[in-house]
Specification:
By secondary structure, this protein is mainly α. It has a domain at 58-190: Tetracycline Repressor, domain 2, CATH 1.10.357. Helices cover 72% and strands 0% of the residues. It is built from eleven helices and no strands. It has helices at residues 3-26, 29-35, 40-46, 50-69, 78-91, 93-105, 107-110, 119-133, 143-159, 161-168, 172-190. Helix 6 crosses helix 9 (143-159). The longest helix is centred in the first third of the chain and has 24 residues, at 3-26. It is globular. The N and C termini lie far apart (58 Å). Mean pLDDT is 84; it is low at 193-205. This is TetR/AcrR family transcriptional regulator. Keywords: DNA-binding, Transcription, Transcription regulation. It holds the Pfam family TetR_N.
Length: 205
């Protein structure tokens, strides 16, 4: 890896940690540079301002997620995409927390945003939700809202699983297991298309 690329990777890692912990408003370029022993001039050589650095961090996370959720094992299946996002969120809690922070902290900046790094993921989920709901009890419902319900539940529970575990008087890993089971049940309900002849047989398998 070239020296310049290595420096960029270090900056992005430090910035992800800072933005996840302190949010966009609470993070400074000076603080990020200090965390990796880099002066402002060197940092600004790679990223001219905080907004550009923040966008680069979000884009790196979006690219990472896209690579994971586009694997053949995940495909276009809503179960697969949701399970992949849950696995990723558990393995990358810092990045998952930053995604949640972006939803909570972004309203003012949203009016000026020119790009949305997470939009391709949400479109992928929207398409999967639409396919999953087709012919079932959720057919006709807004697939993007279904997608946000799935992502929102995962982001909220994984980010707060230690607090949630204390409230539930259980272990954080158990919270994730219960979330996974609930997601599977909810997605099964979305995809429960009526079987041919079910009415004639009283709905029995």
């Amino acid at each position: 890896m070239a020296k310049g690329e290595a420096a960029r990777v270090r900056i992005l890692a430090a910035a992800e940690a800072a933005f996840a912990e302190q949010g966009f408003a609470g993070t400074s370029l000076r603080g990020i540079g200090a965390a990796i022993g880099m002066g402002n001039a060197a940092l600004l050589h790679h990223f001219p301002n905080k907004r550009r650095l923040y966008a680069a961090v979000l884009q790196a996370i979006a690219d990472e997620l896209h690579a994971k959720l586009s694997q053949p094992v995940r495909g276009a299946d809503l179960h697969g995409i949701a399970g992949g996002f849950l696995d990723w969120s558990v393995a990358r809690p810092q990045a998952a927390t930053l995604i949640l922070r972006e939803l909570l902290d972004n309203p003012v900046r949203a009016e000026r945003a020119r790009s949305w790094p997470m939009q391709p993921l949400m479109r992928q989920l929207e398409a999967a939700a639409a396919r999953a709901a087709r012919g079932g009890p959720m057919d006709g419902q807004d697939p993007m809202i279904i997608a946000f319900q799935v992502i929102g539940a995962i982001a909220y529970v994984t980010a707060g699983r230690r607090t949630i575990a204390a409230l539930m008087e259980t272990a954080p890993d158990t919270v994730i297991d219960r979330l996974r089971a609930a997601l599977h049940a909810q997605i099964d309900a979305i995809t429960a298309a009526p079987r041919a002849g079910a009415a004639a047989t009283g709905g029995q398998p």
